[in-house]
Amino acid sequence: MSSDSVYSCSDADGAIRTRIAEAVQAVKDTTPLAQSFTNFVTINLVANAQLASGGTAAMSFLPDDIIDTAKIAGANYINVGTLLPFYKDALPDIAQRLAYLKKPWVLDPVAAGIGKTRTAILKSFRDYPPTIVRGNASEIIALADMWGLPRNSTDFTNLGDVHGKVGGHNATSLPQPHAASDTSDNIPTSDASAGTTTRPAGVESVDDVDAAIPSAIALAKHLSSHMPAAMAQRFSSENDAASVPCPRAAVAVSGAVDLVTDGETVYRLPGGSAMMAKITGAGCSLGGVTAVYLAVADPLIAALAASLLYDRAAEIAEHESHGPGSFQVAFLDALWNVTAEQVASSPLLVAS
Ligand SMILES: Nc1ncnc2c1ncn2[C@@H]1O[C@H](COP(=O)(O)OP(=O)(O)O)[C@@H](O)[C@H]1O
Ligand SMILES: Cc1ncsc1CCOP(=O)(O)O
Ligand SMILES: [Mg+2]
Predict the structure, then answer these.
(1) pLDDT interval class at 3 (50, 70, 90)
(2) Is 319 exposed, middle or buried (0-12, 13-18, 19+ CB in 10 A)?
(3) Ligand 2 site: residues with CB under 6 angstroms?
(4) Which atom of ligand 1 is nearest to 276's Cα?
(5) What share of the chain has pLDDT > 70, as a percent?
(6) Is the CB of 286 under 6 A from ligand 1?
(7) In this predicted structure, what is the pLDDT of residue 98?
(8) Average of pLDDT values for 37-41?
(9) Which reaction does this enzyme catalyse, per its entry (predicted)?
């Protein structure tokens, strides 16, 4: 844990840490399968990260293949980073069929807000939504906006200033967004309270994680309200019923300080390494590993466990590497070597 951090919110309780440790260990012990429909750029890192965290991987793009595999997979993952024309029909169909089968899935809405096709696909998921959404701040804001979700007005300024990470994504430290013509192809993401409007910058975020809190909460509530009863029951039976009376969906927002919410409680996860932004697929592979954990745990625990594992592994990799190439290799090794206890004893701050 970093000693220079300033926290104004409380530490997570022991019960949630126990469940995180159990999830990490269960993956190492049972090697669950998570199926992925993911982009061509980072597909190899996604599979390798899933294996290194203890799971197994299967990549597929054909709806009938995916539905057959979903019947034997513990969870599924859809990432819209690279698109082909047939995806516009295939992905809404897959989401609908996963819903009918009550199969849990993770969505990474890569580059949400860019392009008519991506927007049409992401909009189609509104009525057959995933169990977890994992994205960077701009993607979370854009997705909530395109689903027309109301912003939650809760004031989270008491979350404190967390300095657990080196560097960070923010609007000033990143290149300017791609020049976007002002057409309906691009969904501007706006922060009404701040009076600002931003646009997605390709696959990178132009927003701070905190700016995405209201959108993340609204998304998590929407996902939870659509969770099939049978799926909620499955998550309940995997946990102590007293501690998880009503399992909810979860949203994970990544950045310099990650954030996870189930729509009721907001968790902040400091730590990690700015070098994660220097390899392609850090976020995509985090989505894939989140799906691995979703195969053995409820959405909140899965999102927390995966993000905490990534932070601890990134810190080790930064220490052991000399640039992006060796960082990626060291990061995969660290995913393999970090223990359940290390993940569960991570800094984990609760606000609400
Ligand atoms: N500045 C940073 N400091 C520490 N960790 C970071 C930083 N930027 C990204 N990460 C980590 O990299 C992983 C991917 O996050 P991010 O880069 O936001 O996703 P994406 O690649 O989808 O934009 C997460 O584990 C996140 O914690
Ligand atoms: C570069 C790129 N282009 C389309 S998808 C993709 C990978 C994005 O990976 P990540 O979101 O994990 O950085
Ligand atoms: Mg991404």
Answers:
(1) very low
(2) exposed
(3) 39, 41-42, 81-82, 110, 203, 280-284
(4) 12
(5) 80
(6) yes
(7) 97
(8) 98
(9) 5-(2-hydroxyethyl)-4-methylthiazole + ATP = 4-methyl-5-(2-phosphooxyethyl)-thiazole + ADP + H(+)
Quote the ligand 2 centre to 204 CA distance (angstroms): 8
CA 138, CA 255: separation in Å to the nearest integer? 10
Residue with CA nearest ligand 2 atom 11: 283
Report whether 298 contacts 235 (CB < 8 A): yes
Residue type, 16: I
Is pLDDT larger for residue 201 or for residue 244?
Answer: 201
- pLDDT, residue 334, reads 99
CATH number of the domain at 10-175+184-350, out of 1.20.1270.360, 1.20.1300.10, 3.40.1190.20, 1.20.1090.10? 3.40.1190.20
From ligand 3's centre to the CA of 112, what distance in Å? 10
Q: Could you list the residues known to form a binding site for ATP, using ranges.
A: 134, 254
Spatial separation of the C-alpha atoms in residues 16 and 253, rounded to whole Å? 19
In the numeric block, which tokens belong to residue 266? 């907001």
State the greatest distance between any 2 C-alpha atoms of the chain, in Å, as a whole number: 52
pLDDT value at residue 173: 28
How many angstroms does the Cα of residue 80 sit away from the middle of ligand 2?
Answer: 9
pLDDT of 211 higher than 50? yes
